[in-house]
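Forgive a beginner's question, but might I ask you for the amino acids of a protein and the tokens describing how it folds?
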Amino acid sequence: MRRESRAARRPIGVFDSGIGGLTVFKELARRLPHEDLIYFGDTAHIPYGSKTPEAVRRYSLTVARFLEKQGIKAMVVACNTSSALALSALKKAMKVPVLGVIEPGARAALDGGAAGPIGVIGTDATINSKAYDRALKGARAIGQACPLFVPLVEEGWWSKDVTASVAREYLAVFKKKRPKTLILGCTHYPLLARTIGAILGRGVRLVDPAVETARETGRMLAERGLLRISGKGKRVFFVSDASKRFLTVARRLGVPIKSVRLHSFDI
């Protein structure tokens, strides 16, 4: 049996602007059960989607440096906005591999093979960055910002009538342009998949970038000889503010967390 290297026993850092990245965390924990995971939610600065690109890069680099000090072997940027605006800066600044959620999500959309345009929904910052347009490599993309989805999800209102009404307003553009594939380009949005699917109909395939990101993380670790192959992974959670709300919303998202550590930044 292959022995694990000392480097393989180090944890994976998972970074999000707040709470939505727990959907990526869940996929990583499911697919890589032996891995130790350290999650950081920058709840003091949420939402990143309404911040300037400069602010997003500054916050992202600050969190990344903190995670690097925890001895991580890789970092997953479980935030579409940070992946869109800060990934290249993070890759240059860090000594460990850094993976975002946009490239894996775009690849999954393209692998579907459906003709016609590909829809993308996300925060204002993600849509305005055109990051998915670039990642889709020439395929026609139709972007739609859906900023109200995040607070609705965090309130646990994904099945309420008000959420369906908001979704119908946002998704009206896709009823006219008829994409065959829609990328859920914010980590909160998979929790609205049933509502979104009901509005757009069965003919539209929904892509959750978290699933492909977890797959790619496993592939990357295996290629570099960094994959854990034994033991039960530990999970540690940090936030930069509002730890009680984080715990409450995490439980709504189906991630029962016993405790969370507070680490604030002077940015």
About this structure: Residues 7-100+211-262 form a domain with the Rossmann fold fold (CATH 3.40.50.1860). The chain has a mean pLDDT of 93. The radius of gyration is 18 Å. Residues 53-69 form the longest helix (17 residues).
